[in-house]
Design a protein that fits this description.
The protein is built from six helices and no strands. The protein is mostly helical. α3 runs antiparallel to α5.
C-alpha cells in the first residue's frame, strides 16, 4: 500500500477536481438506477395496464434522464482526462529530471527501447490506475449495491436467481482478465 500512497501524492494538487469527478460519476450511477424505475413504470403503465397515453410522459422522462446522464458523464470524462494529463506531465517531468542525474554507464547498460517503454507505457498505465480505476470502481460498487437493492424491491425471486449465477460470471471474467493481462504483458515486452 505504501507505493500507492506515494503515487497518490501526484493527485493532491487536483483533489478538488477529483472530488468533482467522483460526484459526477456517482450521479451517473444514480441516474442509471433511476432508469430502472422509469422502465418499470413503462412496462407497468403501457404494457400491463394498457395505458398508451402514459407512453409519452415515460419516454420524456427517459429522454431527460439520458440527457442529464450524458452531461454528467461528459463532465466526469473531461475532469478525469485533464487530471490524468496533469499527473502524467508532472510524473514525466520528475522522471526526466531524474534521468538527467544518472551516469552514462546507466544508459550504456540499458536498452533504449526499455527506457522509452517505461517512460511512455508505464506512466500512461499509472495515469489510468490513479485517475480512472478508483473512480470507476466506486461507480461499479454503487451500481452493484443499488441494482441489487432495486431488484430485491422489484422481484426478490429474480434477484436471488441472478445472485446465484453471479459467482459463475465472476469466474469467467477473472479467467479472461488473466488471459488479457498475460497477452498485454507479452506485447509490452515485445515493443520495448
Amino acid at each position: 500500500m505504501a507505493p500507492f500512497g506515494r503515487f497518490t501524492a501526484y493527485l493532491r494538487p487536483y483533489r478538488g477536481r477529483m472530488a468533482a469527478a467522483v460526484l459526477l460519476i456517482m450521479m451517473v450511477a444514480g441516474i442509471n438506477l433511476a432508469m430502472l424505475w422509469v422502465v418499470r413504470r413503462l412496462v407497468d403503465l403501457v404494457l400491463v395496464a394498457r395505458n398508451p397515453s402514459a407512453l409519452t410522459m415515460v419516454v420524456l422522462e427517459l429522454g431527460l434522464l439520458f440527457l442529464v446522464q450524458g452531461l454528467f458523464a461528459m463532465g466526469h470524462s473531461y475532469l478525469t482526462a485533464t487530471i490524468g494529463q496533469h499527473v502524467v506531465t508532472d510524473l514525466r517531468i520528475q522522471l526526466f529530471a531524474h534521468l538527467e542525474t544518472l551516469s552514462l554507464g546507466f544508459f550504456s547498460r540499458r536498452r533504449t527501447g526499455e527506457l522509452m517503454s517505461r517512460l511512455m507505457n508505464d506512466v500512461s498505465a499509472l495515469q489510468h490506475v490513479l485517475t480512472g480505476a478508483p473512480i470507476d470502481s466506486a461507480k461499479q460498487v454503487v451500481t452493484l449495491v443499488g441494482g441489487i437493492t432495486i431488484l430485491l424491491l422489484m422481484n426478490w425471486r429474480l434477484c436471488l436467481l441472478i445472485l446465484i449465477l453471479l459467482p459463475a460470471i465472476v469466474l469467467v471474467a477473472r479467467f479472461f482478465g488473466r488471459r488479457l493481462k498475460t497477452l498485454s504483458t507479452g506485447i509490452q515486452d515485445e515493443t520495448s
